[in-house]
Structures are given as structure tokens and as C-alpha cells.
């Protein structure tokens, strides 16, 4: 009898301790997602306290809105979600602003623009700060809008001003926002250009004597050899432009086929990884600073029969690269920085060309052919799934995701939804 009472008391104390521990756990730390691949452009959120298990049926859906066919994802800033859209019946290009907490539309910028469907219509993510929204539309016009009202402040037609060539399947490049400038890669007369936020006036440009055309690649910031630079890639290979004046620091000649969409990423202070579809494979180069120049050499390459990614840029985590591979049935893969496959999702899940995002030690991953959302532990030794839920549907669920304030925004070809995946510290509602 005494033993039974003792066991009961211990059980009650354990339950009480668990309740107290749960009450004392910190809520999610909110972090804006103001541009493509997030605040640091690394597809990683700094939020914590996110749910590691989901209720039956998946995370609660806070709101859902209809969107035009495409892949245009949201940027999130100060409790507002901004995204590009299109009205096919009216032939009107839109930039829309919604309240993150409930999906209520706050404003909509509209412009007449005839865009025929070409394997989707919308592709890009705006870049946002306290004052401005920068949107590069399918026909290569950069729009600067007032973030509070949606009023257009200035525009820059890259075809007219830089003799840019609209890429196949329209523009897929997302502008890069910095504290004092916006960075784009026009092609034509300039490989890369830095523009003033307030007026669009050019600060500097990277010369383009070979007239390499714009690709679908979005610029990435990096620091190689203690020199701040912007990484870019054309069909002729990856390159780096100096952040201070735009001079071309280095270029590695490498032929990509048809189109290139993933961005080059720096994996440390002297190595850059690049991958692409259309049988291009993957490439790691060493970019080492020498007196008055950068020396570049190939460290290794992976043929497409081994591993490559067609759409999404890999994520760097704990000295490994994570991405969905193209040639091996959409397997989510963990690669070492030597190009060795540590593990894949084989026999567990196939993700097609689905997107992924890293947050709080977990990967959110979409199955690109079904819309199933899976939650994985970020693990460098094995595939470890924590939860799964059927959230979206249809084909080509390829659009990137965005996470802020414990809310995950994702889309398929007809709708955008917002899920509650964590408890936030504060309600960052728009005014």
C-alpha cells in the first residue's frame, strides 16, 4: 500500500514538473523573412520554439487565398506578407500585401501587362524593408513600391535601360536587398548593378563585355578572402562582383545548359558550390585571394547522373549541404562538402522539385508532386522524420516557403496558405 502511494505521488510530481517546464519554455522568437531565402539569404530562419510534432491533420491553417498559377512566394516584414500575382482575365500584374495573422488584403498594386502562361506565370519573391517593396516582374521591370500603401515610387525597365534579354519562361530572379541599396543582375550591358533604394539611380555596375544574358539565378552575398562580394551565375559559369564598386573579382568558366536557376553559395571563406539541372551536374570551386587578384580552380564536380538540383539552392548546415536532388527521383539528400552523399530519403519519401526551409533545427519540405508537407530533424547522419501532413495539392508545388512569427507561408499552383507552426512571443500586426 505504501509503495503504491509512493508511486502515485511520484507520478503526480512528474506530471507537475512537466507542466511547469512547458510553461517556462520560451515562445518562438519572431524573425522577418523579407526576401527570397530569408533575411540572410541562406534559406534559414533564426526562430526558435517551433513545434516538433503536429496535431492530426497537420498544423492549423490560419488563412488561404487564391493565386494565379506559378511559383511566386511571399516575403514577410512587420506582420505583412508581400507577394507577386497576376489576373489572367484582366491581364494585370499585381503585387499584393496581406496581414500575416489573418490573410486580410491591405493593398494591391496593379499594372496592365500581358503575360501568356509559360509553365506558370509568376516566379519571383519581392524584397521588402520598412519603407520599400522591390518587385522584379516577369518581363524584367523592377518596381519600387511604398511598403505602407503600394504606391509606385519608381521603376526601371531592364530591357530598355540595360538591353536585358528576358530569359526563357520569363524572369525568375529575385532582387537582393541591402541596408542602403538593391542589387540586381540585368545581363545585357551590366552583369550586376547596385541601385539606390530611394530613386533607382545606379551606384555601380559590373561590366559585361561578353553580353552574357540574364539567367534565372538570384544574387547571393558572400565574403571570400575577406572581400565582400555578390555571387552570380550565368550559363557560362559562376562569378563574384565586388560589393564596394562592382568590379569583376573572378569567374570560373563552366557551361550550363538551357537554363540555370539555383544560386551559387559560399560554403566557407574560399569555397563556392554551384548546381543546376538540364544535365549540368554540380561544381565546387576554390576561390582564393592572391595579391591583386583571385585565383579560382575546380575542386570537384558531380555529373548529373550522380547528383544535381534543378530548381532550389542547397542549404548549408553543420558543414553539410542539404537539397532535393533531380536525377534520383527527388530524393532529399545530405551531401558532405567533398561531394559525398551521406544519406538520402530513398525508401522514405520522394520530393520531386519541392522546396525546403531550415528553422529551429528542422527542415520543412514539400513534396513537389503531391503537396505533402514533411518535417524532418536537421541531421547530418540520417533521415529522421518528425511529422507529415497533406497541406497542398496538385502538380508542380515548387514555390519557396517563408517563415515568420511562427507562421509558415507556402503555395501550390492555385492557392497560398499560412500555417501556425509555433507560438510567437508577440503579435506583429500591421497598423
Protein topology:
Elements: H1 2-24, E1 44-45, E2 61-66, E3 75-77, E4 80-87, E5 92-99, E6 105-112, E7 127-128, E8 132-136, E9 141-146, E10 152-157, H2 158-162, E11 176-178, E12 181-184, E13 190-196, E14 202-207, E15 220-224, E16 227-234, E17 237-242, E18 248-251, E19 265-266, E20 271-276, E21 281-290, E22 293-302, E23 315-317, E24 320-324, E25 332-336, E26 341-344, E27 356-359, E28 362-366, E29 372-377, E30 385-390, E31 402-404, E32 407-411, E33 415-420
Parallel strand pairs: 1-27
Antiparallel strand pairs: 2-33, 3-4, 4-5, 5-6, 7-8, 8-9, 9-10, 11-12, 12-13, 13-14, 15-16, 16-17, 17-18, 19-20, 20-21, 21-22, 23-24, 24-25, 25-26, 27-28, 28-29, 29-30, 31-32, 32-33
Question: Distance N terminus to C terminus?
Answer: 62 Å
Helix content: under 10%
**Sheet/helix structural class:** mainly beta
Main pleated sheet: 5 strands, mixed
Tally of strands = 33
Q: What general form does the structure show?
A: globular
Mean pLDDT: 91
Question: What's the quaternary structure here?
Answer: single chain
Give the amount of beta strand, in percent: 35-45%
Unreliable runs, pLDDT <50, ≥5 residues? 1-29, 424-428
Major sheet strand order = 1-27-28-29-30
How many helix segments?
A: 2
Task: Evaluate the radius of gyration.
Answer: 22 Å
Describe the structure.
- By secondary structure, the chain is mainly beta.
- Among the domains are: 223-260 and 262-309, no CATH class; 312-397, Thrombin, subunit H (Beta Barrel), CATH 2.40.10.
- It contains two helices and 33 strands.
- It has helices spanning 2-24, 158-162; strands at residues 44-45, 61-66, 75-77, 80-87, 92-99, 105-112, 127-128, 132-136, 141-146, 152-157, 176-178, 181-184, 190-196, 202-207, 220-224, 227-234, 237-242, 248-251, 265-266, 271-276, 281-290, 293-302, 315-317, 320-324, 332-336, 341-344, 356-359, 362-366, 372-377, 385-390, 402-404, 407-411, 415-420.
- A hairpin with a 7-residue loop joins β29 (372-377) and β30.
- The longest helix is centred in the first third of the chain and has 23 residues, at 2-24.
- The radius of gyration is 22 Å and the shape is globular.
Amino acid at each position: 500500500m505504501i509503495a503504491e502511494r509512493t508511486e502515485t505521488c511520484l507520478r503526480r510530481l512528474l506530471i507537475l514538473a512537466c507542466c511547469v517546464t512547458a510553461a517556462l519554455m520560451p515562445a518562438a522568437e519572431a524573425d522577418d523573412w523579407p526576401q527570397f531565402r530569408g533575411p540572410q539569404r541562406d534559406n534559414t530562419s533564426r526562430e526558435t520554439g517551433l513545434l516538433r510534432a503536429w496535431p492530426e491533420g497537420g498544423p492549423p491553417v490560419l488563412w488561404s487565398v487564391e493565386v494565379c498559377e506559378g511559383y511566386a512566394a511571399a516575403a514577410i516584414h512587420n506582420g505583412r506578407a508581400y507577394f507577386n500575382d497576376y489576373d489572367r482575365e484582366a491581364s494585370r500584374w499585381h503585387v499584393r500585401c496581406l496581414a500575416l495573422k489573418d490573410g486580410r488584403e491591405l493593398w494591391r498594386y496593379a499594372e496592365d501587362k500581358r503575360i501568356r502562361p509559360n509553365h506558370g506565370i509568376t516566379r519571383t519573391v519581392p524584397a521588402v524593408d520598412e519603407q520599400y517593396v522591390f518587385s522584379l516582374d516577369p518581363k524584367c521591370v523592377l518596381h519600387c513600391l511604398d511598403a505602407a500603401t503600394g504606391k509606385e515610387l519608381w521603376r526601371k525597365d531592364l530591357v530598355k535601360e540595360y538591353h536585358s534579354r528576358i530569359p526563357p519562361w520569363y524572369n525568375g530572379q529575385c532582387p537582393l536587398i541591402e541596408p542602403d541599396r538593391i542589387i540586381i543582375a540585368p545581363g545585357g550591358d551590366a552583369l550586376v548593378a547596385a541601385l539606390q533604394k530611394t530613386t533607382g539611380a545606379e551606384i555601380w555596375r559590373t561590366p559585361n563585355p561578353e553580353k552574357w544574358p540574364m539567367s534565372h539565378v538570384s544574387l547571393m552575398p558572400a565574403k571570400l578572402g575577406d572581400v565582400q562580394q555578390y555571387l552570380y551565375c550565368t550559363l557560362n559559369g559562376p562569378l563574384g562582383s565586388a560589393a564596394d564598386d562592382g568590379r569583376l573579382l573572378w569567374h570560373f568558366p563552366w557551361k550550363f545548359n538551357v537554363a540555370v536557376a539555383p544560386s551559387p553559395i559560399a560554403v566557407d571563406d574560399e569555397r563556392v558550390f554551384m548546381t543546376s539541372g538540364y544535365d549540368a551536374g554540380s561544381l565546387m570551386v576554390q576561390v582564393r585571394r592572391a595579391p591583386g587578384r583571385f585565383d579560382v580552380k575546380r575542386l570537384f564536380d558531380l555529373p548529373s547522373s550522380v547528383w544535381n538540383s534543378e530548381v532550389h539552392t542547397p542549404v548549408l548546415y553543420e558543414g553539410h549541404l542539404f537539397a532535393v536532388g533531380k536525377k534520383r527521383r527527388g530524393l532529399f539528400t545530405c551531401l558532405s562538402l567533398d561531394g559525398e552523399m551521406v544519406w538520402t530519403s530513398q525508401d522514405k519519401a520522394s520530393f520531386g522539385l519541392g522546396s525546403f526551409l531550415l528553422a529551429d533545427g528542422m527542415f520543412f519540405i514539400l513534396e513537389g508532386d503531391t503537396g505533402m508537407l514533411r518535417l524532418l530533424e536537421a541531421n547530418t547522419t540520417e533521415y529522421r522524420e518528425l511529422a507529415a501532413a497533406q497541406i497542398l495539392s496538385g502538380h508542380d508545388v515548387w514555390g519557396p516557403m517563408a517563415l515568420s512569427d511562427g507562421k509558415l507561408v507556402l503555395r501550390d499552383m492555385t492557392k497560398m496558405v499560412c500555417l501556425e507552426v509555433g507560438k510567437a512571443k508577440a503579435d506583429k500586426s500591421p497598423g
